[in-house]
Amino acid sequence: MHIRKLTGGLVAALAVTISLMGGQAAAAPAPAAETAVAARVITYDASGAAEFRSAVDQGAAVWNASVDAVELRPAAAGQSANIRVIADDGWPRAQTTSLGNGTVWMGRQAVNEGHNTIRIASHELGHILGLPDIKPGPCSSLMSGSSAGTSCTNAYPNAAEKSAVERYFGGAFTRTAGDAPLNTLIVG
Question: Which residue among the candidates 34, 71, 113, 124 is catalytic per the annotation?
Answer without folding.
Answer: 124
